[in-house]
Amino acid sequence: MPYQLLQGWEWVRFGNIAQHNSGKTLDKGRNTGKLRDYITTSNLYWGYFELENIRQMPIRDDELEKCTAKKGDLLICEGGEAGRASVWFYDNEVCFQNHIHRARFYRHVDPYFVYRFFEKLNATGEINQHRKGVGISNMSSKALASIVFPFPPLPEQRRIVGRIDQLMARCDELERLRGEREQKRRIVHITALKRLLDAVSSSPRRSGGSGYADEAFTNTWQFITRHFSELYSVKENVTELRRAILQLAVMGRLVPQDPNDPPASELLKAIEAEKQQLVKEGKIKVAKPLPAIKLEEVLYELPEGWEWVRFFTVNTVKSELVLAKEYPFEKQIAPDSIEKGSGRILFHRTVEESGATGPNNRFYEGQILYSKIRPSLNKAVIAPYSGLCSADMYPIVSHVNVEFMLKVILSETFLEQVRQAENRVKMPKLNLESLGLFLIPLPPLSEQQCIVAKVDQLMALCDTLESQIDAASNKQAALLNALMAQV
Question: From CA 234, how far away is CA 339, in angstroms rounded?
Fold first, then answer.
């Protein structure tokens, strides 16, 4: 016996307290009788039924006794998530198919008490002892009948059910209140970050100043710092903080400008000279002239020393298609390998492991790999090695600090232009023409390096915040498990 029971309780097997059987098998070629509604495992969930998509099949009158559920019967999934159960609480009867067990209890058994016991088996994982199969499991009639569970007198069953229902209602209310609190916290946080970014857009920092910030920016930032621990106790807000950090970075608000830095205009001259040399060496083709940036295109005012430039002014897409099947042991990266919006690779694999055989682009260490399919997912990464990438990705050579350029690509400044480009086409795919015309905020080279260092520092802080949230959640779960172990 699993543990000692209270006086008046008994250990029983499920088969001793209920008559149970599975339902009607669907066989279009052999089924006869009147068309009747029936439910499947897709209609049966923990504690409730989803009855919007009820099916019908022919069922004879003499089969109804075996495959009809009435109010108070416990219905249990035989397949799928085997053991998933709910009491049929409707006044009308319903037929059920063969992948559902119907348990009709003998006297002195409250079906809701048994249902709660099945919930307990599922919550603790004990239910797996009665399942067979990997992936899609099943629970045979024999396995169901053999389940051992504690059986109190009927009045106590009802008191237990009433108490559980009462506590579950309180849990639901606590969950509702927690959700409302987190939603309010999220709204406050998003509003504060929006005010922060709006303040930056209207009043950029100027070189030679003393860390100038307008009153709106200062007040909003002070509000965030005062309520930091409360605002960043949920992961959703940390995600928003990461986005705000990137946006502040590309707007020139994370690090102070140094008036002694050569302006971005000087950097552009050096880039143009570099590109002309690469053309002479035959490493790149002569690029088409890019249209001048009009005043109405400018997204926001930049600090002094910065410049708005077209994407292809400071970047070059290098396409070098090869047949993947000829390079089975090369490293291979595809959009599914890259985490959305973070610039991180999720996993590493070879061409052979990826199953790719057709055209792939060759890429080289240090290039930016950018997914042109569903680009609003913002999948981009700096290649940590050379290899092949999906033809759905652009290998990009950046003529500025590559880590800074990746942060621009991951920022809202870039993403908003992606969304606008997506809206102009039927397929969510970013073509080279659109990409090349995107606007990029370009600071002096030395400031790019400072921005990268600051962003990395703040992203590490975000990693710490998320780890603390996970640790707090794990601690709460451990305390709850310890409490339940004493019950």
Answer: 20
